[in-house]
């Protein structure tokens, strides 16, 4: 029988993900070898602190004192980068690895969103693979689906829930009737939120994933023009109002091509309770693709954590074990294009606006006048007085109007003496 091929792997970064991946590869080597007709051998590992106590036993011979040595050693074919961050050691490692003709697998969305185009060119020129399935929505196999299963399609829209932490917070506030602050504390305790969850809450994490998805869907270079809002300002009152109106609030990433222009945006959105995307709760992610000839395609699953992320990393490693060099972004860099970006201000939405005001005569008519001055017509208006009677909350649902006019209403009301809190705008639906 023909001798089975072997490929040597260096895992750099042994934190939450690296440790799980290491254990997985130790215990599943045989089945992976059979499935891929090539044996994955982890012959080197490295992390920052050699003396750190770890839950895995590592043979001293495998430990690299300088993690960058992995990029120079003859007996390393694949480098798995699990350090994280767009700059510093992760950047150095991946650039050097590709320059030295090593295949790279990474779970690092920040690095790919920032340097993916440059890295992809080096990989293509050097005839090696750069794989990043684990960087977008953890265990949801969206990257490989786009590159392989959905290769036939011209995609015009990609959207969905790409951040498990923010989705967990929004759905738990809703289900358990808890405040943002309380849910966040619990999410950290349960390991659903990092100790510094800033990029999960301010929309940056979704933005990085959406930029990567857009370039794969539209055969384009990564476009850094993107409108980003997170969930930091969503409070229990918004969740309750949404419920009364038949909606749920979800943090969505949406990217679409309209008349050869790209719109990319991340923001909380009011979604009809009966819609599919409203049913994606907790830490789940869902990616929805509109393409031709396939129509609408949905993939959902766990977006983070060591198990789902390892599932994605193994898919990438297996793809390399099976051979063939693939273009990192599905198409040669020579064929990728720059798209023209169109700002959200030109998009039209129906919207929910909330004004916290001093409850006195004339306030409501002043607000509605600002709406009519900006040609935004009102579909529904609800006024809820506070128990103290001194203040009131005014909720206005608008008909569809351009985002720039909705923004103007916020700008023109924000400094009014009767406004007690920054007015809120949450767009409705995925149109
Ligand atoms: N956690 C998730 O659920 C998840 C999901 C999807 C994708 N990801 C991505 O996966 C990557 C790893 O995440 P993680 O959660 O495993 O991170 P982590 O637990 O913080 O682990 C980071 C690892 O990098 C090592 N490291 C830090 N600086 C280094 C340096 N200068 N040289 C060598 N090693 C260094 C650390 O070493 P020490 O152990 O010695 O401190 C640690 O082992 C990130 O890109 C993240 O965005 C994570």
Quick summary:
The chain is an alpha/beta fold and 431 residues long. The chain contains 13 helices and 17 strands. The protein has helices at residues 16-27, 29-36, 88-99, 109-126, 142-149, 164-176, 180-189, 198-201, 204-218, 236-244, 306-321, 363-373, 403-414, and strands at residues 5-12, 38-46, 78-81, 103-106, 130-131, 154-161, 227-228, 247-258, 261-272, 284-292, 295-302, 340-341, 348-358, 378-385, 391-398, 401-402, 419-428.
Largest sheet: 12 strands, mixed
Distinct bound molecules = NADP nicotinamide-adenine-dinucleotide phosphate
What's the pLDDT, averaged over the residues? Answer: 95
Strand content: 25-35%
Number of strands: 17
Using the CA coordinates, give the radius of gyration. 24 Å
Distance between the termini: 58 Å
Low-confidence stretches: none
Order of helices and strands: EHHEEHEHEHEHHHHEHEEEEHEEHEEEHE
**Helicity, in percent?**
25-40%
Structural class: alpha/beta
Count of DSSP helices?
A: 13
Task: Please characterize this protein's 3D structure.
The N and C termini lie far apart (58 Å). Strand 14 and strand 15 form a beta hairpin. The protein is an alpha/beta fold. The chain has 13 helices and 17 strands. The strands form 2 sheets. Strands 6, 7, 8, 9, 10, 11, 12, 13, 14, 15, 16 and 17 form a 12-stranded mixed β-sheet that branches. A 5-stranded parallel β-sheet has the order 2-1-3-4-5, sandwiched between helices. Helix 1 crosses helix 11, helix 3 runs parallel beside helix 4 and helix 4 packs parallel to helix 9. Bound molecules: NADP nicotinamide-adenine-dinucleotide phosphate. The site of NADP nicotinamide-adenine-dinucleotide phosphate (NAP) has 24 residues, from helix 1.
